[in-house]
Amino acid sequence: MSNELTGKAALVTGGSRGIGAAVAKRLAAEGAAVALTYVRAEEQARTVVKEIEAAGGRAVAIRADLVEPEAATRAVEETVRQLGGIDVLVNNAGFLTYGPLDEVSVEELDRVLAVDVRSVFLAAQAAARHMGEGGRIISIGSCFNGRVPGANFVLQATAKTALVGLTKGLARELGPRGITATVVDPGPIDTDMNPADGDSAAFQRSLTALDRFGEAEDIAAAVAFLAGPGGRYVTGTALAVDGGYTA
């Protein structure tokens, strides 16, 4: 690795498994000290921390249920307290939600928007208070931002598309301070939430130009690029890492 993030402090929400864990480990490998949040998967979060430490890095795990309004702000402040600051915020926590429109309850709608949108806003608001020039706010979106392949994805598409508008607003608000805001839109990624051998895997593969799933490390590499010097002139936009899903 290049160690381009040496001396930086990063927070990755939902960092105990899947894409979040891969991002946390990649940022640490690039030299950053990393805080990662979890809700119930404490053992998995501790495992990620141990792997980072075993590789010579520094990491801490923070419990934060982002359904709670104050949790995102608290996670940022705890990151600052334990790591001495925050230079990179990766909003990864979210729900993979699908189902018919008439079966979406108000409670489900509120829960998804609380984590996928509200917590991103609040974490960015809190992090921006501590970030200086060169700060990065990176949110993990979805390929549904560019293409909704069929029915049953209205809630997922709504939540993830909202990140684009939020990110554009952050880019304009924070640009004068040298802070960038971007979205990474994954396509089908092989994780425990969406395995490459799952029931809908063949359909998902057929929607990509490469006819295969990506890996969590593919998303982590994109995040590392945006967090490092290569991303210094990229802001207010979404980067599709989707195997040609939106081609």
UniProtKB/TrEMBL annotation:
Q: Report the Pfam families cross-referenced here.
A: adh_short_C2
Transmembrane parts of this sequence: none
Keywords in alphabetical order, please.
Oxidoreductase
In terms of SUPFAM superfamilies, this protein maps to:
NAD(P)-binding Rossmann-fold domains
User: GO molecular function terms here?
Assistant: oxidoreductase activity
Q: Which domain of life is it from?
A: Bacteria
Entry annotated with the keyword Oxidoreductase: yes
Task: List, for all copies, the residue spans of the domain called Ketoreductase.
Answer: 8-192
Say if the entry is tagged with keyword Ribonucleoprotein: no
UniProt lists the family membership as follows: Belongs to the short-chain dehydrogenases/reductases (SDR) family.
- The protein in question is named 3-ketoacyl-ACP reductase
